[in-house]
Amino acid sequence: MKVAQKDPRKLKAHPRNSRVHSGQQIAQIARSIQEFGFLRPVVVDETDTILAGHGAVMAACQVGLKTIPAMVVGELSPRQKEAYVIADNKLSHLSTWDFAMLGEVINDLLVQDFDIDVLGFNEQELDAMLKEDASILPPGFGSSPAPAPGPGREIPQEGAGELVPLGSGIAQTSVPIPKVVFGKYLIPLTAEESERLEMEIKQYVDEYGTLAGFFTRLWSEVNPTD
Q1: Phi-psi region for residue 43, left (φ > 0), alpha (ψ -120 to 50) or beta?
Q2: Distance between alpha carbon 214 and the CA centroid of its chain, in Å?
Q3: N or C: which terminal CB in the chain sees fewer CB atoms within 10 Å?
Q4: pLDDT at residue 171, as a whole number
Q5: Helices (H), the chain
Q6: pLDDT at 186 (0 to 100)
């Protein structure tokens, strides 16, 4: 193995990468790169196909970096490469947080006027950490972003501003933002809308055991009758 400088725009997404990155996540990674620099090499094979670091490559393209460090691995079989793409993503999510320590560090950063938005946590997650109360974490904390639409679902064109390109060499592997399909409409969601809708759905199902009548109740809360 060796570390080489690679043009992120020329790196190729692994054709069987199953990890999905939202537009918000890419923006957060890009902000981290701007704050700290590109500190962790991505992993590619001898054909410049990405094995680990798809999100970092997207963010590097977004920031406009001309080169990034990449560890070139040439001794893995095709089967091992496919397995590693999954293992690298999954194993990093098996750890958990020490909320007491995390809250202490975040508090120290706040005292020093550090912009903690660069850490990547949203407001509700930060509130849970500062209060050391995991019970108020938002639904889906630490889970994967919304998956790409399945076969037959219309995906907006890149020019619509709803896709994040992974560099000019692999523009076809752009990442869609979360959307709701309603009849003939494909409605894009902001990260906040997606999180709130997921929370509302979970609370409704926990209470009623079904999604039947969900929107009727939602609309009645927004426009209550006199």
Answers
A1: beta
A2: 27
A3: C
A4: 35
A5: 23-36, 54-63, 78-91, 99-111, 123-130, 191-208, 214-222
A6: 62
Long-range CB contacts (< 8 A, 24+ apart) of 131-137?
131/103, 132/99, 132/100, 132/103, 133/99, 134/99
Fold of the domain built from segment(s) 2-91: 3.90.1530
Give 73's strand partners: 45
pLDDT tens per residue across span 154-206: 333 333 333 333 433 333 334 445 666 666 566 777 777 777 888 888 888 77
As a 3-state breakdown, the chain gives helix, strand, coil percent values, each rounded to 5, of 45, 15, 40
Q: How would residue 72 be classed by pLDDT, with cut points 50, 70 and 90? A: very high
Pairing mode, strands 163-164 and 175-176: antiparallel
Angle ∠(149,192,194) on CA atoms, nearest 5: 30
The residue with tokens 């793409």 is 85
Distance CA 128, CA 138 (A): 9
Which pTM does this prediction carry?
Answer: 0.57
Annotated domain spans of the chain: 2-91, 99-136, 190-226
Q: Among the listed ranges 76-85, 96-105, 144-153, 174-183, which one has the minimum average pLDDT value?
A: 144-153
Comparing C-alpha atoms, which of 108, 104, 126 is closest to residue 117? 126
Closest to 202 in 3D by CA, of 122, 132, 143? 143
Radius of gyration of the chain (CA): 20
Owner of token pair 């590097």: 60
